TrEMBL record:
Native organism: Tetrabaena socialis
Biological process terms in GO annotation: proteolysis
GO cellular component, one term: cytoplasm
Residue span(s) of domain Cytosol aminopeptidase: 69-76
SUPFAM superfamilies registered for this protein in UniProt: Zn-dependent exopeptidases
Family recorded in the similarity comment: Belongs to the peptidase M17 family.
Annotated PANTHER family: LEUCINE AMINOPEPTIDASE-RELATED, PEPTIDASE B
PROSITE patterns for the chain: CYTOSOL_AP (PS00631)
Keywords per UniProt: Aminopeptidase, Hydrolase, Protease
Protein name: Peptidase B
Length: 225
């Protein structure tokens, strides 16, 4: 990966920034919820003890994963967070990450992808996004693609076999770590406003995409007393 491309990766913590900003809003407004915030903050540098392609890793959920691409590290750390959050039986589980270039290739940098098995939650979020002018677009958790995650060495491969449908494959991988929980929303964001989409309130650079929509949704779902 060239240095010019790497320079843009300082926004690759956009999901964590979004979650922390949303948590701040929830706490400041004293919404009547029991909030759990999990941020898998890790160092991702070249080292002698770095993971290697096709290493088999054991996750918090006890699921073994064949590391199909060492550049797809975000889903590995997010999987442990999802497993821990699911163990608390939440009423709603939301995760956000700058997870795949495939989501940006499909929708562009201005439109985060949303994956959820919960039609009601998506309907709420879609209305909130429209009300706030904070656009989102739902992509499918297409079940037949699940076989792309099959591995001969582990319970799962972390990546698909052919590189196609990458955002869906990543979301299906994460779904393995929420078990039977259906009230789960996954947002694959670029966390960036490109020059072509600069407008009032959205300058070029890092952008908390989906923050306004999620906040509106939570206010509707859990109104303050």
């Amino acid at each position: 990966m060239g240095g010019q491309l790497l320079a843009g990766f300082k926004q690759d913590m956009g999901g964590a920034a979004l979650v922390l900003a949303l948590a701040h809003l929830v706490m400041a407004a004293r919404l009547p919820v029991r909030l759990l915030v999990l941020v898998p903050a890790v160092e991702n540098s070249v080292a002698g003890n770095a993971f290697r392609p096709l290493d088999v890793l054991r996750t918090r959920a006890g699921i073994s994963v064949e590391n199909g691409n060492t550049d797809a590290e975000g889903r590995l750390i997010l999987a442990d967070c999802l497993a821990e959050a699911t163990s608390r039986a939440p009423d709603l589980l939301v995760d956000a990450a700058t997870l795949t270039g495939a989501a940006r290739a499909a929708l562009g940098a201005d439109l985060p992808a949303v994956f959820t098995p919960d039609d009601a939650a998506w309907a709420q979020l879609e209305r909130a996004a429209a009300a706030e002018g904070d656009p989102l677009w739902r992509l499918p958790l297409h079940g037949p693609y699940r076989r792309q995650l099959d591995s001969k060495l582990a319970d799962l491969s972390s990546t698909g076999a052919d590189g196609l449908g990458g955002a869906i494959i990543a979301a299906l991988f994460l779904r393995e770590f929420v078990g039977e929980l259906t009230r789960w929303v996954h947002i694959d964001t670029s966390a960036f406003t490109s020059p072509a989409f600069v407008c009032p309130g959205r300058p070029e650079g890092g952008e908390a995409q989906a923050l306004r929509a999620l906040w509106h949704m939570l206010l509707q779902r859990y109104p303050p007393a």
